[in-house]
Amino acid sequence: MKILNVDVAVIGAGSAGMTAYHAAKIHSKRVLLIEGGAYGTTCARVGCMPSKLLIAAAEAAHAITDAPTFGVHGGTLRVDGRAVMARLRAERDRFIGFVLDGVEKIPAAERLSGSARFITAHRLQVGLDTEVVAERIVIATGSSPQVPAALTHLGARLMTSDDVFDWQDLPDSVAVIGSGAIGLELGQALHRLGVRVALFGRNDNLAQLADPAVRACAACCLGAELDLRLCTEIVSAQADGDAVLLRTRSADGSERNEHYRLVLAATGRSPNLNGLALENSGLALDARGIPHFDAHTMQCGSSAIFIAGDINGARAVLHEAVDQGRIAGDNAGRYPQVLPGLRRVALTIAFTEPQIASIGCTGDQLPVGYKAGEVSFRDQGRSRVMHRNCGLLRLYGEPGTQRFLGAEMIGPRAEHLAHLLAWACQSGMTVGQMLEMPFYHPTIEEGLRTALRDLQENLTEHVSEEAHCADCTPGM
Q1: Are residues 133 and 42 both part of a single domain?
Q2: How far is it, in rounded angstroms, from Cα 363 to Cα 396?
């Protein structure tokens, strides 16, 4: 048995693990990066980047379909599925290449291939022939797609989001199971590329939206284009020749039997806990088997073990994984002097059309007595100009302080509004201070000003009609 003694062992070489490794190296010379699978982050291989490549192709196809609205008529739309997927894979592989370049810069002696499992709080078994003795450990093993047990028997007809981006061609039909961000993004993109798609959700949740009004608007906007079937149960699924026979039951009890070439399970991702043998670490675990940890230091209890990224089941998005990795690696490197790191305002975006975003405090996180303001994009000037006039923005504020707390929205170019709102929220701005910022005409941001004015009125409850229209612009 080969034994390696190190200061810090980082389990997992994804976005969180790579960041943790570099942060730990600032303090410790002996840092080891352990990876049990292929190098290349979830984002580059099967997440952010390949999904946006598919969405970009879908947007190009939709632009041709939507062109007659503007009096512009082209030829017959033709989607070359093989060409779409070839470009996606080629660009995806370029992104992976950038990640691999970073890995190659790490000395070979500080990289170890193999699956790690805890023997004790300071000892890891890696593969069959190596034991790592580490003073401190960072767990950053990421996540994997969930697959409902009722679908596992479908074999090659069952797909996950990890499988989609290796397709050689587009299928003729897909049943998408799951109405979270992954299911909505992939389902709409495939639909716009000519695939017959039905998207099933077991309840009325859409992309984890907490605000009932925004969720209802999202169902209306997306359902106008996509075969969206919420509050629908999958009764059974069985292989039938070269297809899958799917039996579903809607909320009113009616049932449907339909054939789809493939079933895409998009019901979320689960932390990669299997094989870690965390029961040997001495850590206190929650009901899911995830160690209890401090979200500001990423430290597990008072131990010398830290956790970062999707493995901890909180805020599973890339920028959060990087932040957590930096905090975990820094504290593992400097242990026992553990310090809180920068945690940013919550920000999530689903790249549907319209886009969906959540910022700051939402849902149950909002304090009792909060106030809301809103704007519909139905008649918002710039949105109508672009023929993207569907959506709703809801803002939340704190009475008394008038501090901006957070927002949820579905609307055109929400990714840009979401960043403005996240910056304002993290800066602790009040609604009044946000209204003092410049708003150009005609822009979608004018809709934000309308929502801010509505929120300000609800916070103060005595704004006059003259003050309400003090800076109104025709067509705003």
Answers
A1: yes
A2: 10
